Structure formats: C-alpha cells, structure tokens
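Bug #2210: token dump truncated for S-methyl-5-thioribose kinase?
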Amino acid sequence: MLGFHKIPTVFEYEDFVSCGQSVPYVRLIGESWPMTKERSYFEATALKHQHSLSPKHVPEVYHFDRTMSLIGMRYIEPPHIILRRGLIAGIEYPLLAEHMAEFMANTLFYTSLLYLTTTQHKNAVAEFCANVEICRLTEQVVFSDPYKISEFNRWTSPYLDTDTEAVRNDNNLKLEVAELKFCEKTQALIHGDLHTSSVMVTQDSTQVIDPEFAFYGPMGFDIGAFLGNLFLAYFAQDGHADQGNDRKSYKVWITDTISGTWNLFHKKFTSLWDKHKEGPGEAFLYAIYNNVELWELVKQKYMTELFHDSLGFAAAKMIRRIVGVAHVEDFESITDLVKRADCERRALDFAKMLMKKRRNFNTITDVISAAQ
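Reproduced locally. Full output below:
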C-alpha cells in the first residue's frame, strides 16, 4: 500500500513508514551537519535485498525514486509499534528473539563469502563502498566522538561528568575501541543501524526498517547493535519501575530475549552454513575442509570470534548512547535525572567492562550474569 501514512499509535513517531524521503543533513542535528541524500539509494537497495533474504521480517519496496530520494514500501499496519517504545512500556514479545535471529542469520550468511563466490562478494562490496559518507559518520559517532571532547557529545550533566571524563581518559578502553574500527572488514551486508527503533513489532510480527546506514562490514556490528540496545533497555527498567510494577520480571524477560537471540542466531547461522557447505562460498572450500573434525573446528573458531566481535560492538553502541551525540528514549524518558544517571552509570560501567574483557566470555549466559 503506497501513500504517506504515519503510524497511528499512542506513541508519536517521526518517520513515515510506507513512504520515506531522505533529507540532506543529519536529522538529529539539523542543517549544520550536512549529509548526502544518496544514502536513500543504499537504503532502498538494502531493503530490497534483505526482503529477498528474509521476506517475513523486512517490508517489500514497491517503488524508489532516486531523483527525489523517495522510497515507497509496504505499509506496516497497526498495531505494530517501534520496539523501543514497547520495551519502555514493559511489553513482552514472545517471538522477538526467534524473528531477529532469523533475520540476522539469513541476511548475514547469504551476503558473506560463506555463501557467495569471491566475484559476487567483491561486486557487492564495490557497490556499497559508495556509501562512504555513512561509513565515515558511523565511525565518527560510534568509535571516535565518545572518547574525546566533541561539540556534539552530551550526557546527563552534572551527574555523569566524572564518568564521561573517565571514558575519555581510559587508555585501555581506547585501545579496545580502535580494534573494532571496521574500515576494511567487509564480511557481509549489514543493516548498519540495527537498534530497537529500527524494528517494529506486534506479538507475532517483527519488521526491520531503516537500513540507510547499510554497507558491507563486520557481522558483529549488527548483532552487537541489537544486543547492546536490549542491554540498554535492561538497565533502564529500574528507572521506569513504580509501586505498581517493580519491572523485575520484565528484566528477566529482556535477558531471556538477549540469550535467545544469540543462541538462536548461532543455531540458525551454523545450520545454514552446514546446509551450503558444498556450495559456491569460497571462504572455506569444502575440498579443503571436508574432514568432519576440521569442519567443526572451523565453525567453532569462526563463531567464537563473531561472538567476541558482537560483544565489543554491543559495548561500543552502549557507550555512544550514553556519552555521545545520539541518546535513547529508554533513558531520556526517565524524568528524574538522578535516577536516570544511576541507570546510565550502571549501563556505562557494564559496557566498559564488556569492551575490555569481551574475550573472557564463552557464553551469552556469562555475559548476562555479569550485567546482573
């Protein structure tokens, strides 16, 4: 269904869902921070490709006008709401972990060298390399600005002044962040901005939207972004608790969703890999890795590295949402600044620890235990 439809929920949301148009600047900042409208081409291209790989969880694009930077796609009808708003409201989504694991497994595996030939992969990388402005912006706001004095940074001042300064002065943290910069790591086509405001949900439907930051990069960036935003929601729950609802059971649901997302992703991703191990993918040629023991070792090593990458990116995403330019409503909607800062501080301390010690974790259960 085409047209300019705004999601009519109890929560106001600024983006048009069935018809979107890019503006030539960063919407959060305004015209003082210009950005190319060409990103709409990459958003439309990513949506089309991701829909073909995960049609249940990505809306179909019906029309794209490159001149007008206009995308027309399937209207995501009520009662779908933005996931972040649902998390703030304390709504449980029983299929969320299953759906997000399926989306990430399909879109990441089928655009990687585990499935594609080198020629196919390089051609796809070359196309998305032109989205260079978005890559530069992503690296700036995620891996650079939070760790230095920047005019765009903000935090819950004065309560987090000392904590923010500590981030800028943490040399070990900076060394770990530097390892995550992804200029030349082109594993798969990633959404690039897979936070909980880029997902629309009902009890039985999950729709991933807004991949304007799409590019070929590290798989863990998408996985970590989603997990990191769930952890932000987890730490924010105490700020939304009241006498009628202490949010403790909801925090358990969030951690179960974090655990389920990674574990189901691991299962689905490796199942796809096993299914196509004799296929065209050139990362691990079957003629070389057809020994059963070696095959299991390859998968174990690959998934362990992906797990640790994902934890690092989750931590980076959390830090930037607390002391960087763009914050999250999970915390911002907590009106008591002391209570908000307390929630943010615990999230920030966890993220810093996770960034520096991510390789010490073997399971997602261990990570969740460290957050509690």
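Output looks complete on our side. The chain has two domains: 1-75, 79-371. Marking as cannot-reproduce; reopen if the truncation happens again.
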